[in-house]
Design a protein that fits this description.
The chain has 346 residues and is mostly helical. 58% of the residues lie in helices and 0% in strands.
Length: 346
């Protein structure tokens, strides 16, 4: 059975907020090796987000995914027309405009009216090139072969779809709008399914991970096996009592499967609400895609535990808190049938 509606709404907000916190924590060190991180931040690495805690394009695109999905949901409710992939594609194209001009056009409405989003945070060339195309790609007709992590890092909102299978399909298709490599879009579906099972269905984390691996195995054995290694390494960690988490055993996190596997591994090692900070630090402090791996970890922990798990001192310095809270909450309201302001997404 799904969780109580109020809990799903809270977990929707926490999912987006937690991802943004991880994004901001990992952003300053995402291109550094572990030795360089220690040199710049001390022997334990980066311990908290900077102030202000600025997000990257990963969080910006997550917001536009949420906005696009909610626009599609509202259209489906009011007109019966349901095409979330096309609506999210057009939402991503609106994000692309924010990277090209300095401020909103006069009379702009919706998410693109917020001048804070008109800030280029070093978006990946794969995304920029894909979104500049005339038509949207799909898993069946990809425009490139990239399996980079920037596909999976924005698919959490798809987890608030009405069913597990729809969440998986939308996650795959949203990621495939920019990343055509199989691992690039399958990891997006896997992540959306995981978020759905945690936030909407209330599954225990390990049970949810096993269900995701079983579903992904039908689409991409490589991604499934990468996630399975995350489980095996977590079991080894507990059995052998390692003092620190070695996420490098799973790769650098630059690809979608690796980034998701690192996040899953970290949460398996630090599953408790009280371990949010420990998990985030472990996810960020490694040689590789620190912002992506920490963002995914934050999304998962938010979906699992709700806003009570998020450190208030970290949130105090985070940008876009109001947008993240509103869009995340509305995702939760949409899937539980609660009322919200539909005019925001008309």
């Amino acid at each position: 059975m799904p969780r109580e509606p109020v809990n799903v709404v809270d977990r929707g907000a926490a999912c987006l907020l937690g991802g943004a916190l991880g994004d901001a924590l990992g952003a300053p060190v995402q291109y550094l090796g572990w030795a360089d991180i220690q040199r710049d931040h001390g022997p334990e690495g980066v311990l908290e987000p900077p102030r202000p805690a600025l997000v990257t394009d990963d969080t910006q695109l997550t917001l536009f995914t949420a906005d696009g999905y909610l626009r599609a949901w509202v259209r489906g409710r009011t007109t019966g027309e349901w095409d979330p992939v096309d609506v999210v594609w057009r939402s991503y194209r609106r994000w692309l405009v924010t990277q090209q001009v300095a401020a909103p056009e006069a009379g702009a409405t919706g998410l693109v009216s917020d001048e804070r989003l008109y800030s280029s945070r070093s978006p990946g060339l794969t995304c920029l090139r894909a979104l500049a195309a005339d038509s949207p790609p799909s898993p069946e007709e990809p425009h490139n072969e990239s399996s980079g992590c920037n596909g999976v890092t924005r698919t959490a909102p798809a987890g608030f779809a009405p069913s597990a299978e729809i969440a998986y399909d939308l996650g795959c298709r949203f990621a495939a709008l920019t990343h055509g490599g199989t691992g690039g879009w399958v990891s997006g579906g896997a992540f959306a399914l995981l978020i759905h099972l945690l936030a909407v269905r209330g599954r225990p984390f390990r049970e949810a991970v096993d269900q995701v691996i079983g579903r992904v195995l039908r689409s991409d054995p490589y991604t499934a096996n990468t996630l399975n290694r995350a489980v095996v390494f977590a079991e080894e960690h507990r059995a052998q009592g390692f003092e620190s988490v070695r996420v490098d055993r799973l790769g650098s996190g630059w690809t979608g499967p690796e980034a998701l596997a690192i996040a899953v591994h970290v949460v398996l090692v630090y599953p408790k609400r009280s371990q949010f900070v420990d998990a985030m630090r472990a996810a960020a402090n490694h040689s590789g895609g620190s912002d992506a791996t920490a963002a995914l970890t934050g999304n998962i922990l938010g979906a699992l535990h709700g806003t009570a798990a998020l450190p208030r001192d970290w949130l105090a310095g985070l940008e876009l808190v109001d947008l993240l809270t509103r869009l995340g909450s509305d995702l939760g309201r949409s899937v539980t049938g609660q009322e919200f302001d539909l005019h925001r997404y008309a």
